[in-house]
Every structure is written in C-alpha cells, then in structure tokens.
Amino acid sequence: MSAPYPWLEVPWQRLLATRARPAQALLLAGPRGVGKSELALAWAQALLCEKPQPDGAACGQCAACHWFETGGHPDFRLVTLQEKTGKEGETRMATAIEVDQAREAVDYVQLSTYRAGFRVVLVDPADSLNLAAANALLKVLEEPPLNTVFVLVSDQPRRLLPTIRSRCTRLDIGLPPVDQAAQWRAGQGVDDALNLLALSGGTPLDAQRWADGSELDERLGMLEGLARPDQLDPVTLGERWKTVSPQTWHNVAYKWLGDLLAVKLQGRVQFNRDFAEALARLGTTADLAKLLALARIQANEGRTLAHPLNRSLQLQAWLIQYRHVFD
Ligand SMILES: [Zn+2]
C-alpha cells in the first residue's frame, strides 16, 4: 500500500521505517484537511497486518487486514467523538471525548492482545479529550503496556495537555505544495482545482468537501450579498442565511474578511479568486480598523459555533457591523 495521499509519501515512509520498533505514543499534528486521520489509519493497519510488505506497509490481503478494513480487528480501538441523542431524539456530535471513553481504552490495553502482534489505540481528534479524559490517558501513556501503540491525531496540538505532548513522538504533517494538491484534485475530476484549493486555504480534503456539498451554492449566495454592502439588507439576509450551517457560515465569512484584509494590506486575494474584482473595489473603501475589529470577532466566533443563539439575530448584528466597515 502506498501513502493514502500522494503528498503524505514522506511522512508515510518515515513511519514505515519504524515499523519494527514503532513509537509507543505518536502524535500526528498538522492543519485540518491534509489527511492525518487517513495516515493514522493506514499506520494502524500496517502495524496490525500479519503479512506486511517488505517496506512495512499492510498487505491488504491477510485476515488481520480484512478485520481491520471491516472495522472488526480486536486489537484496534478508535477513541473519537461520539454521536449523542438529545432530549428531543435529535442526534448530534459530542463536543468532547469523555472520561469514560478514555478509561475504557485504558482498561482495554491492560488485557492481553488477541493476536500475537501489536495493539493500536487511535485517539482522533486528540485535542477533544476533556481534562479528565486526558488525565486518564496520561497514566497509560507514561508506561504503555508492551506492544501497545497509541496514535494521537490533532489539528490543534497546543490544546493538548503539555504532559501528553511530552510523552509523544511528534510527526508534523504540513500542507502539500499547491501544485501537487491541485494535481490530485484535478485527478479526482473536479474542475477549477486551483480555485477550490485557494478557497480551502490549501488543504485538499477540505476542497473535496466544498466540491461535494451544496456549500458551494450557499457560498455563492452569501458572497453575492457581501460583495454589495451598500445594498445589503441585514434583516432579509439574516433570515435567509439562518439555515446555513454555522460551520459553513464561519468558513465563508472568515475567508471573505481575510480576503478584504489581504486586498487592503497586500493588494492580493487569497481565497475567493472568483470575487477578485469586487474585493479589489471594496478593499479601497473599507475602513481598516473596523475591518480588523470584525475579523477578530469572526475569529472568536469559531469557538462558539455550537452555541444555540438566535441565529438570524446573530447574523443581522454581524451584517450591520459589516456594512459599517464601508461607511
Ligand atoms: Zn495484511
């Protein structure tokens, strides 16, 4: 098996070179959307495979590979965010990995392995461990049982407990070179790969997400509104956009403000190349101090995306402030 994505070839080979004596606690760190989770899974499979290839990669054929690929390998555990059922029967993703999950993983690694080889516990996203869960895990990271490998995946390694970080061997996964990522995107049959990549800030898997969903249409609608602040009606748009997922809204708004700043300060568009003309026009009239203030609010909003505020009022307030940037 080769690396999950072409731009992961170097870290993949570095991992494979350690297969005989893998790090017992590995931290895969790097920006969102570069394929860290896929790399971690490929590494877990390589460790569990019972007939690995000469370079250490999984064979994809043996019983262990079969179990792994069908989600049933007894020596593999995934510790991740779980779906929860709310009061009204709605399902939502938990926002943290809970202590029960960590304790369960700790108990699990005390058992003997089912097969003769390694046992792998994948914690993804590791920065979602709550404090109690992180502390529970820390104990076992200090002295992992024989043949047990922990793989932690994180977009925001700074949010991990320093004591956890210090136990781990860290492997940083960077953004792929733009042309390599664009080439991969083009190979996936998506038009305008460079434009999509710019939109997602250079992370190819985010670009995939944009291309797959209805988000592109939503983005277009929002940007058409934001491109004409003089004609923008906060009440109407607040109502219209309240159904857009907070994540999409944040992505679009944040990158739009980022572009306005980039145009103003550096004379270039970073994300929304298809709106370069409107951005250039708006950049000349935007008030820098007001723009920075709004961008700062937007950056903070990323942390409160899940809060059940009145969505259309929240948007209205934002849009009024946005309009003032161009007074
Ligand atoms: Zn195999």
Bound molecules: zinc ion
The CATH architecture of the largest domain would be: 3-Layer(aba) Sandwich
Average of pLDDT? 86
Look up the CATH topology of the largest domain.
Answer: Rossmann fold
At the first level of CATH, the class of the largest domain is: Alpha Beta
Task: Describe the protein's architecture and organization.
The protein contains 15 helices and 7 strands. With 327 residues, the protein is an alpha/beta fold. The chain folds into 2 domains: 6-172, Rossmann fold (3-Layer(aba) Sandwich); 213-324. The protein has a 5-stranded parallel beta sheet with strand order 2-5-6-1-7, sandwiched between helices. A two-stranded antiparallel sheet has the order 3-4. The chain starts with 8 loop residues before the first helix and ends with a helix. The mean pLDDT is 86. Zinc ion binds at residues 49-51, 58-59, 61-62, 64-65.
Secondary-structure blueprint:
Layout: H1 9-16, E1 25-29, H2 36-48, H3 63-69, E2 76-79, E3 83-85, E4 91-93, H4 99-110, E5 119-123, H5 131-142, E6 148-154, H6 162-167, E7 169-172, H7 178-187, H8 193-199, H9 204-212, H10 215-226, H11 234-241, H12 246-266, H13 276-285, H14 288-301, H15 311-324
Parallel strand pairs: 1-6, 1-7, 2-5, 5-6
Antiparallel strand pairs: 3-4
